[in-house]
Amino acid sequence: MMTETRPPPPAEPRTPHGLANFALDFGPLLAFFLSYKIADSYFLVTAFDAAKVGTIVFMIAISIAIGVSLTIYRRVSPMMGISAVLVIGFGSLTIFLHDLRFIQLKPTLIYTGFAALLFGGLLAGKPLLKYVFGPVFEGLSELGWKKISRNWAWFFAVMAVLNEVLRYNVSFETWLTVKVWGVTLLAFLFGAANIPMLLRHGLSIAEPETPPTA
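-> structure tokens emitted (214 positions)
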């Protein structure tokens, strides 16, 4: 008698951690920076043309990051998905309308959106970071989730204001340098500064992750 062969169950989506998570989040932004600097320094093009090259590379790189995340981890984080939509949308506007302000506006919209979501969740009694980083911050109490959501909400709000200040007061090259290195460093330092608070509220000893910097 033949026995019925059942197909194996579908693989569960996995969450990238450590260097993989950093590469998927930071890689496209780094590609943006490097391609701009290379075009500006070695190909004798105008500043806008160099920025246009960087923007195109940025759009391609974040599309590749989405593809890698879907292929290896079978999921795309909401933050990466939102960032990809805005990068491709505002990058296209930058190229076709010849206006760098569109790609510079993208971080402001992301930071503002994240801040609004986190503050809105707190007002509704739901710390939204719990649903995104629950497996990462294992053991964290409900009060801990509320505090970390509140802290990141304020961080994103401040980053939105800072991006607008930079966008209106410095050159595109300076803005991009601060965006790639300064904001990334600030996010890591801010995440590290929250670790003692997280430990006081039940966080197990593990490697906490920092939300993306857009």
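Residues 107-206 form one domain.
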